[in-house]
Design a protein that fits this description.
The chain is of the alpha+beta class. Helices cover 28% and strands 26% of the residues. A five-stranded antiparallel sheet has the order 5-6-9-7-8. Helix 3 runs antiparallel to helix 6. The longest helix has 20 residues.
């Protein structure tokens, strides 16, 4: 049960608070996570740190970790597919409070936005007691300990190139059983990311879909999910060969 609330005024103060035993950063509006929530009693609110700006640096978009999904989905700085995936991530009542840093910390294996960020070659700035480090998003999702006792401060993505996404769900508005998103940069290199095939969203190369070993659940067997990943990957690659969506 949460018994203390702290709202640091500086990043240094926030890092010190996060390292406190039983501390948890407030993410996703009302949810809590110490980036692995386990009965925390101290809530850390990062709203006063000014981490909600979006700015271009050349062809890279730097997104503050406290940027709301509603702002990400409506900003003209965001690539159109990232706008769409941010819009699909949560209903409107939650998009107005949920943050991109919270989405990363929550590490939902079905997050379409995480897949989109990986495809756009996202790197994540993480500040701990000793230093600020940049990690590829897929590395953090595979090893959440990289953000323990630390504060996610920003996410950077590429903005040029073409992108495409395909999904299959029980209904058009349902979270997809499997979703594949791809981005082709200016050099022609293609990055793919897929949901619903692992305990976290994963990056993959165009030829890896057939090598996946997804977990089964009530929505589909492992073979069904693997087949979906293969089919959806082909559709994404076909779209990218035709220019895709920026």
């Amino acid at each position: 049960m949460i018994t203390e609330y702290r709202r640091p005024a500086t990043l240094e103060e926030a890092v010190a608070f996060v390292a406190t035993p039983d501390a948890s950063v407030i993410v996703e509006g009302a949810a809590f996570s110490s980036y692995a929530y386990d009965g925390a009693t101290v809530a850390i609110d990062l709203q006063s740190l000014g981490l909600d700006a979006m700015e271009m640096a050349g062809e890279t978009l730097r997104i503050g970790s406290m940027t709301r999904l509603a702002d990400l989905s409506s900003s003209p700085l965001s690539p159109p597919i990232i706008q769409d995936l941010a819009h699909r991530e949560e209903p409107s009542t939650i998009r107005n409070s949920a943050t991109i840093g919270g989405v990363i910390a929550t590490n939902d294996p079905e997050s379409e936005l995480l897949a989109g960020l990986i495809a756009f070659n996202a790197s994540v700035a993480v500040t701990g007691a000793d230093a600020t480090n940049e990690h590829a998003l897929e590395t953090i999702l595979a090893d959440p300990q990289l953000i323990e006792d630390a504060v996610i401060t920003a996410v950077s993505i590429e903005t040029r190139g073409a992108a495409a996404a395909h999904r299959t769900g029980r209904t058009p508005m349902d979270r997809p059983i499997v979703m594949v998103v791809g981005h082709m940069g200016a050099s022609g290199h293609i990055r793919l990311a897929v949901t619903g095939v692992h305990s976290h969203v994963v990056a993959m190369s165009p030829g890896q879909a057939g090598m996946l070993d997804p977990p089964a659940d009530f929505r589909g067997t492992s073979l069904y999910r693997k087949t979906l990943a293969t089919v959806l990957t082909k559709r994404v690659l076909a779209d990218l060969s035709g220019g895709g969506v920026v």
